[in-house]
Specification:
- The protein has 59 residues and is mainly α.
- The protein has one domain.
- It has two helices and no strands.
- The chain starts with a helix and ends with a helix.
Length: 59
């Protein structure tokens, strides 16, 4: 009896997991277009990181 009960729970939990995966795929697709503008933000972020690394070094 416990075996079938667990089996029934497995598929039930699989449904919500699939929903989450679908949502993640949508997010990845939405991040695809802005990916072109990411390099610009990446450069700015990299410069900010360097400045932050210098601050603790000076201290």
């Amino acid at each position: 009896k416990p075996v079938p009960a667990t089996c029934s729970s497995a598929p039930d939990e699989d449904i919500p997991v699939l929903s989450t995966i679908s949502e993640q795929t949508t997010v990845a697709n939405t991040q695809d277009p802005p990916h072109n503008a990411e390099p610009i933000t990446d450069g700015k972020k990299k410069k900010k990181k360097k400045k932050k690394e210098h601050q603790p070094n000076q201290e």
